Amino acid sequence: MAKYDLEIRAKERRLENKQLKKRIKELTFSRDEWKVKATKRKESLDELNQKLLIVKKNMQQIIGL
């Protein structure tokens, strides 16, 4: 009887581990997607800030004339 219980518990544990591994893969994939999006947004923001500085400098030159 105990051997039978251990077999059932082992099967349940194996299925549980399989589900956990699948969930870890999903979370890792999702995290990586968000990381890429955040990096792209940061690059875009940096580029816009550089353009803004150039525009401000040009406006100061025009106003200063």
What can you tell me about this protein's structure?
With 65 residues, the chain is mainly alpha-helical. The chain has one helix at residues 2-64. The chain has one domain. It is rod-shaped and about 95 Å long. The chain starts with a helix and ends with a helix. The model has no long low-confidence stretch (mean pLDDT 93).
Radius of gyration: 28 Å
Count of structural domains: 1
Categorize the overall geometry. Answer: rod-shaped
Reading the helices and strands in chain order gives: H
Query: What's the quaternary structure here?
Result: single chain
By DSSP, the count of extended strands is 0
Terminal CA distance reads 96 Å
Estimated share of beta-strand residues: under 5%
Mean pLDDT: 93
Helix content: over 70%
Structural class, judged by helices and strands? mainly alpha
Largest sheet: none
Q: Uncertain segments of ≥5 residues (pLDDT<50)?
A: none
Number of helices: 1
